Amino acid sequence: MSESTFSTIDYIRSMLAITAFFLIFLMAAPVILFFLVITLGKATNYIMETIAPLMVRPVLWFSGIRFNIERHAGTIPCPSVFIINHSSTLDVLTLLALGLPRIRFVAKWEFQYNPLFFLLGRLTGQIFIRRNQSEKAIAQLQEACKRIKEQQISVMMAPEGSRKHPGIIGPFKKGPFRMAMDLGYPVVPVYFEGSRELSPGGTLLTKSGIVTAHIHEPVDVSNWRLDDLEEHMTGIRRKYLQWAKADKEE
């Protein structure tokens, strides 16, 4: 999809959504920072589960996007390692809109170059890694494991690493799955349907439409071993390819 496919209405909606995002963020940030400081960070779970979804819902509305959540599992285990398909600029909004319990995000190191993102990210315990330096990324994830385990929090990661990858579902990296094994957490696949078609990345523009987050059955990793890790990763990626194929055919 190229930018030329966006209509005048899409441009207007997108500009309104971008404006709304920054205004809401600028107004909410001082309040969030205040509560984080006076509670010594204990308000983080409430902010991630309740405040963040409320902040992004108006942005999605201005974009003309209806966001749905479909659970294909009876109970979502907590804590877990949640994984997502990462192929759209909209992922920033849809991740926050999920409002998952006790969740923290693994994000690229460069997000911290924005002082406000740096402050909010650090105070809320988000995890920043140098994705282009695999050894440092692994070391940073291993360091984060101890805190994650102690606090019994869930983690959200994108096994593709970057949204800029070949094909609909890019190659999977080992990081999320190694972390799940180290923590003893199940892996919960989340598939975003429709986001790539509305906003494929490389632009803040988006079409109006429907995005559905499919939360699938958790995958038990208790019997996984390092020598069969690739096989398990391939099996999970194959499911994402099937979901993407079904999405495309609809």
TrEMBL record:
SMART domains: PlsC. Pathway: Lipid metabolism. Residues 80-195 form the Phospholipid/glycerol acyltransferase domain. The chain crosses the membrane at residues 12-38. The lineage of its organism: Bacteria, Pseudomonadati, Balneolota, Balneolia, Balneolales. It holds the Pfam family Acyltransferase. Keywords: Acyltransferase, Membrane, Transferase, Transmembrane, Transmembrane helix. GO terms for biological process: phosphatidic acid biosynthetic process. This is 1-acyl-sn-glycerol-3-phosphate acyltransferase. InterPro entries: Plipid/glycerol_acylTrfase. It comes from the Bacteria. GO terms for molecular function: 1-acylglycerol-3-phosphate O-acyltransferase activity.
